[in-house]
Amino acid sequence: MTTRVIVPHRGLDASKSRLSPVLSPDERGDLAAHILRRVLRIARQAVPDVVVISPSPDLGELVEATGARLLVQRGMGLNSGLDQAREAATADGVETLVVLHGDLPELDVPEIQALIAAVPLEGGVAIAPDRAGSGTNGLALRPPSAIPFRFGVDSFSAHQEAARSAGVPSAIVRRSGLAFDLDTPDDLSEWLRSGVLA
């Protein structure tokens, strides 16, 4: 069964603005690049077919160095970018689509495998919430068109409701590496204390 991982990314210049009280723009860009490289490296260990969707063509060199591919987004907006990436995946015959955010510094291969394995065999979705239980940090869909993307405010409940509305089964995957996204100065301090820096 063919599987593709999609990693949406705004671009390094637009990343991590909430860390501006503690990091300079260059430091924020370096941090975002470091975490994105790690996410792509881990994702490719789990699923060889990894695509980054971003409005920033400047990510090309970083993405290609990891063995992933960059799809330059037409227009703006997370959900519209993911729709574009989904169209490309469907055209390529992908059967299972996985969305992972590019700011998951403690992500590891078994967590991606668990997310994919949680998708019901007959089709449906698996949703990995963030630590607050409000956002969606990982989403797996079989087929790729199983539900519409509902990233944004309260996306975890929005994706659950989308599955109910579509009449497809859903599973919830709670794993620490999927749940921990690095957004705030407190997140940064916690991550630095954890020692998971490679």
Q: Topology, please?
A:
Blueprint: E1 3-8, H1 25-46, E2 50-54, H2 60-65, E3 69-72, H3 78-91, E4 96-100, H4 109-117, E5 124-129, E6 136-142, H5 155-166, E7 170-172, H6 176-179, H7 185-194
Parallel strand pairs: 1-2, 1-4, 2-3, 5-7
Antiparallel strand pairs: 4-6, 5-6
Helix pairs in contact: 1-4
Structure description:
With 198 residues, this protein is α/β, with parallel strands linked by helices. It has a single domain, classed as Spore Coat Polysaccharide Biosynthesis Protein SpsA, Chain A (Alpha-Beta Complex). 39% of the residues lie in helices and 18% in strands. The chain contains 7 helices and 7 strands. The protein has helices at residues 25-46, 60-65, 78-91, 109-117, 155-166, 176-179, 185-194, and strands at residues 3-8, 50-54, 69-72, 96-100, 124-129, 136-142, 170-172. A 7-stranded mixed β-sheet has the order 3-2-1-4-6-5-7, with helices on both faces. Strand 5 (124-129) and strand 6 form a beta hairpin. It starts with a strand and ends with a helix. The model has no long low-confidence stretch (mean pLDDT 89).
Q: How far is the N terminus from the C terminus?
A: 31 Å
CATH fold label: Spore Coat Polysaccharide Biosynthesis Protein SpsA, Chain A
- Number of beta-strand segments: 7
Helix and strand content put the structural class at alpha/beta
* Tertiary shape: globular
Q: Which CATH top level class fits?
A: Alpha Beta
Low-confidence segments, given as residue ranges, are none
Chain-averaged pLDDT: 89
The CATH architecture comes to Alpha-Beta Complex
CATH superfamily: Spore Coat Polysaccharide Biosynthesis Protein SpsA, Chain A
Approximate strand percentage: 15-25%
